[in-house]
Write a structure and sequence with these properties.
Blueprint (H helix, E strand, L loop, with lengths): L12 E3 H11 L4 E4 L6 H9 L5 E4 L3 H15 L3 E5 L3 H15 L4 E7 L15 H4 L4 E6 L6 H15 L2 E7 H5 L1 E3 L18 H13 L3 E5 L7 H11 L3 E3 L14 E3 L7 H9 L2 E5 L6 H4 L5 E6 L13 E4 L2 H11 L7 H21 L9 H10 L5 E4 L3 H9 L7 E3 L10 H11 L5 E6 H6 L3 H7 L5 E6 L4 H11 L12 H7 L3 E5 L2 H11 L6 E6 L20 H11 L7 H9 L1
Parallel strand pairs: 2-3, 4-5, 5-7, 6-7, 9-10, 9-12, 10-11, 12-13, 13-14, 15-16, 15-17, 17-18, 18-20, 19-20
Antiparallel strand pairs: 1-8
Length: 587
């Protein structure tokens, strides 16, 4: 008699929430933000079991966690991950999710829910989160079969990367506790980001347009950060003045003579005048929300982007090229003939030098209360050459745009298109977690600081030596100017003075108060030596910045009286308009 033995395979079982965490770590996620609630208990158990693989960061508000996850993605290109508990946790996340949506970065949100038996029963904190997230998300699924949880998480991450947006997975607490077979293999190793291949005939069309143009301008965005050398070479070979979006700042050295700065209210005089005079706008890796406000809609344009939706979105496109900025510029450089020196570029370079000279006079101001510009001077002198700056929304963006002089090693970000205040402190957490060896600064006004100031406690809890600068002018200054312009009066913009240095000390950070340039310089010097978070509360004058988008300087467009009033208000010195500089070169 022959006996046949049946082979028995024993498959390990794990809780579904642990399978979820395994997928996260497969994709390289090493930290996750959130606040525990009863609906997150299964997830918290899985995170504790895997503390050696993934670090849980306990934020003090779910919005802070979502903003930090968004900044993770902006700085690293990797997906940012956060979670929230049922009900209030879901609604608190929404602001940071919209920041990721608007700036087109990948984010995964795990939206925990009450026990599945309580869904649709009007239970405590029970709500329907799926429609809540419909607009903000590129992927939005409720998991009711625990076996499917790791697969759905995997698919959510792939979709977030592909569509550069927010993926949401809803997980009832009991689903996370349920044991499933540990057999799922994620697709992380099979994923590789790719760019569309541009058509070679478009390169020749672009070169013809550039050759025909008399006053071309290169307008580049954050899609050129990986193409710094190509951007520089392209500008130099074809004699192009360059304007960068704020999120594109740093793609070319700020000291390069061809760089005009940024555009719009936060931007520079040379940038605005170059855009107004151009006959060919070459947009590369940029999707500028104010294009319809500042671009002549009849001007010829070459537009290069990996996103077909961006081509022609803000300006009618003479030639649209779907492709990677680095590859497109490389081909343009290789196939194009070098352009001769032009008065157009020379005039723009002179315009930029005049602008920088004027900026430096503001940085050297000894007025009291102090102007904010000297703060930027101190940062340029003291910040490490690979420092990371998280710029909160408000007047800080104007100052950083015009005066922080980047050389290519620094990183920075903000809430670019959604423009939510409060991103500073959470963003600093993300920056320091992702780049622990690099110096991190956050720059906030007192309005923005108050929105997420509780996240200083998070910085303290995790011993993150972040230098937080608060530029306190006792006002929502950016909005104050808008009200003065549109209403000829202000209402509701004044802020109560707060001692942010004392607040810092109260939560375990180190606080400084500064009222002069010397005190700012000394505080930054000392903060750089600390191994804990610091807050420098800088009391500044509530000034109105020169509006880069509304210049009153050209006598062809404005009366002498209006020009003199503008010059006196903003203390403008030795800045002839671009038209006058061009005329002087051509005479």
């Amino acid at each position: 008699m022959i006996a046949f033995l049946e082979r028995v395979y024993i498959v390990e079982k794990i809780q579904a929430a642990e399978a979820l965490v395994n997928v996260l770590t497969d994709w390289g996620v090493d930290h996750i933000y959130g606040i525990p609630g009863s609906s997150t208990n299964s997830l918290m158990k899985a995170l504790k079991k895997n503390e050696d693989k993934i670090k849980y960061i306990q934020v003090r508000h779910e919005e802070g966690g979502a903003l930090a996850a968004s900044v993770d993605a902006k700085l690293t290109g990797k997906i940012g991950v956060c979670f929230g508990s049922g009900g209030p946790g879901h609604t608190h996340l929404i602001n940071g999710m919209y920041d990721a949506k608007f700036d087109k970065v990948p984010m995964l949100v795990i939206a925990a829910s009450t026990h599945s038996k309580n869904l649709t029963a009007d239970y405590f904190q029970e709500m329907d989160p799926v429609p809540l997230y419909t607009d903000v998300s590129v992927y939005n699924r409720m998991v009711l079969n625990p076996i499917e949880l790791p697969r759905v998480i995997d698919q959510a991450i792939r979709t977030a990367y592909r569509d550069r947006g927010v993926a949401v997975v809803h997980v009832p607490v009991d689903i996370g506790y349920t044991e499933i077979e540990n057999t799922y293999t994620s697709s992380a190793n099979a994923f590789e980001p790719t760019f569309p291949q541009h058509r070679q005939e478009d390169i020749h069309k672009a070169l013809d347009l550039i050759k025909e143009a008399k006053r071309p301008v290169l307008f580049a965005g954050r899609g050129t950060h990986h193409a710094r050398e190509e951007l520089k070479a392209f500008s130099e070979k074809f004699k192009l003045p360059v304007i960068l979006t704020f999120l594109g700042k740093g793609a070319m050295d700020d000291a390069h003579p061809n760089l005009m700065g940024q555009l719009g209210r936060l931007g520079s005089k040379p940038s605005m005048e170059a855009v107004e005079k151009t006959d060919l706008l070459i947009m590369i890796g940029a999707e500028y929300p104010f294009g319809r406000d500042y671009f002549d809609q009849s001007v010829k344009s070459i537009q290069v982007n990996i996103d077909p939706v961006a081509l022609g979105k803000r300006l009618p496109s003479t030639l649209g090229i779907m492709g990677d900025s680095k590859a497109v510029m490389r081909d343009l450089i290789e196939l194009g003939e070098e352009m001769p020196e032009t008065n157009w570029l020379k005039a723009n370079q002179i315009n930029r030098v005049n602008w920088l000279n004027w900026i430096h006079t503001l940085e050297d101001s000894n007025e009291y209360p102090m102007r904010p510009e000297p703060i930027m001077k101190a940062l340029n002198l003291l910040a490490d050459d690979d420092a990371i700056f998280i710029i909160d929304v408000g007047n800080n963006v104007i100052l950083s745009s015009r005066e922080l002089m980047f050389t290519g090693k620094q990183k920075h970000t903000t809430s670019g298109t959604f423009a939510t205040m409060g991103i500073g402190l959470p963003g600093g957490i993300a920056a320091k977690l992702s780049y622990p060896e690099r110096e991190v600064f956050t720059l906030s006004g007192d309005g923005a600081m108050a929105m997420m100031m509780q996240e200083l406690i998070t910085q303290v809890k995790y011993k993150l030596p972040i230098i937080n600068l608060v530029m306190a002018n006792d006002s929502y200054g950016f909005i104050q100017v808008a009200q003065e312009t549109e209403n000829n009066e202000t209402f509701g913009v004044d802020l109560l003075e707060v001692d942010y240095a004392k607040f810092a000390e109260a939560v375990g950070a180190k606080g400084y108060t500064a009222r002069t340039y010397e005190e700012v310089y000394a505080a930054i010097e000392d903060a750089k030596k600390q191994d804990l978070p610091t807050v420098i509360d800088i009391k500044i004058a509530n000034i109105t910045h020169l509006p880069g988008h509304a210049l009153v300087l050209d006598s062809e467009n404005f009366s002498e009286e209006s020009i003199e009033e503008f010059i006196a208000k903003f203390n403008v010195k030795e800045m002839p308009v671009l038209r006058e500089i061009l005329n002087s070169l051509e005479d």
